[in-house]
Amino acid sequence: MEITWWGHATCTVEDSDVRVLTDPLFARRLAHLRRRRGALPPPDAWRADVAVVSHLHADHLHIPSLARLAPGTRLLVPRGALRAVPGLRRLTRLRMTEVAPGDQVKAGGLVIRVVPARHDGRRLPLGPHRSPALGYVVEGEARTYFAGDTGLFDSMAEEVGPVDVALLPVGGWGPYLGEGHLDAGRAAQALARLAPRSAVPVHYGTYWPIGMDAVRPHEFHSPGEEFVRLAAERAPGVAVHLLGHGESVRPEVAR
Predict the structure, then answer these.
(1) Are residues 74 and 97 in contact, defined by beta-carbon separation less than 8 angstroms?
(2) Domain range spanning residue 238?
(3) Is the pLDDT score of 213 beyond 80?
(4) With contact defined as beta carbons under 8 Å apart, do 72 and 93 qualify?
(5) Ramachandran category for residue 230: left, alpha or beta (phi over 0 → left; psi -120 to 50 → alpha)
């Protein structure tokens, strides 16, 4: 199996000859955010058998990016997304399924399990609390956990279950992280709870608010390296793969 990080929360997980794309975001600019590091993902990044969306925030559910997916691509979105985000209804070429924690979806040789996340899953700024924030576990040759956006919660290891690889958010797109997020320190704590064989830090070092380059710039540049350092202290048995934008890794998995 192979994992490619395209930036922010967008990854390709290729397992058992099935390509799973997480939270597709292929924009140079999104509202007040600008892509500051890493080239825009190439058209090959748009290629997927299944795309999963963790929650309804526009940097995770981005309609123009989803529109680039090939006709017939399977798309999993949180329950209630079609009602909350009318633009999804225009994506008639995609095979869309609303899911909630506990659901399982088969895709070729994979099973994709839907697990809870602790995050405000609304379509901001005014959306009602109708759609859950989700994580996904892709089970094939490996078990790969994509956390989406989440805070720590007591039942995380129990809800996620045993995994080989964890794709964990370690930062954000602004100088301050609100409730329901993992920074490098909390992500290292999550890693210690989950105890996978490997981890890849994501959701940092890609987008930043326009005009705020000088405001707490370490929150943009350093979360990946900080996660590597803290993971070595708190979960020394886990191999952490620090990827650049567009880079891939083939993590070791249990046989």
Answers:
(1) yes
(2) 2-249
(3) yes
(4) yes
(5) alpha
